[in-house]
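Database export, one record per block. Field names are fixed; values are copied verbatim from the stored entry.
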Amino acid sequence: MEEVRSFGYLCPKCGKAVLGSRSVFALQAAAVRIGCACGESELEIQTDGTKFRLWVPCGLCGGEHHAEVDAAAILTGRGVGLACPETKQLCCYAGEEAQVRSAMEELAIRAEKEKCEEKEAFTDNVIMYEVLSELKDIAARGGIRCTCGSTAYGIQVHRDAVDLICRQCGGKLRLNAGTDEDLDRLCCQMTLTIRGTKGMTVV
């Protein structure tokens, strides 16, 4: 029975795990392509006899990665994993079918979990909304200004913090917005002062 090697990746378009197998002979004879059933992504595998070159659609960052792997690592042993340079997490597997299938199941579960976590835009949605409401009240009474003298500012919202950015000099004040303590701290402030990037102006 001819030896078979398997390849797996996560489709960046539909999010499903893609698993394909090819004989060792086929891998050594010509370029191989393994595509997702959705038709939107394809793993390409080429070899020069000593190395394999892989073009991997990445379901973690959405891009495509190029990797070179020694032929022995692909054709023998349990297999190898290739990591996404953006997330530093494994995104492609090659080797024994059982090993690759198990690894792909874990990858699919992890990717789905991360996708669900991304749906929660903030560490604590209630705290973030309260912080933004409090900032609105402080701004309404003219309580936000910069040491450069400007009262014009912009807001940049992060997962667990809010940045007040001076429109005149670019100075920034970061306010944490992830816990009850962060909210209590803000509620005690009558005014907020952005530390400007220019020298202070006497007004």
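Remark 1: Confidence is low (pLDDT under 50) at residues 199-203.
Remark 2: The two ends are 87 Å apart (CA to CA).
End of record.
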